Amino acid sequence: MVERRLGRGLDFFLSGSRGSAPAPAPVGAQPAPGSPAKPAPTGLESEAEPSSSSVPIASLVPSPFQPRRDMGQAELAALADSIKASGILQPILARKVGDQLEIVAGERRWRAAQLAGLQEVPVLIKKITDDESAVFGLVENIQREDLNAIDKAKAFAMLIQKLGTTQEELARRVGVDRSTLANFVRLLDLPEPIQAHVSRGTLSMGHARAILGLMDRDAMPKLAEECIRNAWSVRALEQQVKDINTTLANPKGPKVGGPKKTKPAWLTEVEESLVEALSTKVSVRYGRKRSQILIECAGRDEFE
After folding, report:
1. pLDDT tens digit string along 126-162?
2. Is 107 a catalytic residue?
3. What's the alpha-carbon Rg for the chain, to the nearest Å?
4. What does the pLDDT read at residue 47?
5. 3-class SS of residue 14
6. Catalytic hit among 102, 107, 271, 302
């Protein structure tokens, strides 16, 4: 079983062999009476050792590896109100890139701090590679339930390409099951209109996976619209896909006068169990002397 490390997430990089630094006091909150004055930091003086300090908010730039493409304004406004009342309780993680600080984790806090009118924010500066930065951004956002399935899928696909790794290795690094990661990546095989529905939440990931089983790709958008219009459950959609595929496979229907062959219940149960276990379309053909199990897969990683 895959070790689940999402709960630890960024802590791995902020402690242990990579060094650690105390978090600064919340920015935006009033300093305690009698606190000694500290020299104003430049925010860019990080050398070999990581530093934690308040830096000008304008010196930070978003990460190109940020998987979240849509940050709700209502959510940011609520976070900005919280920051006004209590300050930023957790430093933003950043790395030095040229003359700027690139955000590795905490872009939502940075954007909300701008809405709150802050001039400085607490930042923990670390030496972080491009690969680590990409993994950081993904791990931090996976822990948030409101990151939509398509953004997750695109982030996984981007990391696989950037790191030159397999789905299995990436799944181990970010702490998810390989089958879970594969199911997300398969969503990118859907036509763009259906991906948009999944991003907006008008179609669930379960509905999207069911549509992937349709043999006719051109018919997918129309089926998706019909599913939304009729508020079909995932199971009802799966039945629709099955019926359409049956028609496509045998457009002329059964031969006149010939008995319609049906699979025995035990064989259907085996087929359904394999579909559930492998999360892809499986067809089982049983014969007295010869039998076949056909497993559909997309790409070499899924094949392996």
Report:
1. 888 877 777 776 676 665 556 788 988 888 888 888 7
2. yes
3. 25
4. 42
5. helix
6. 107
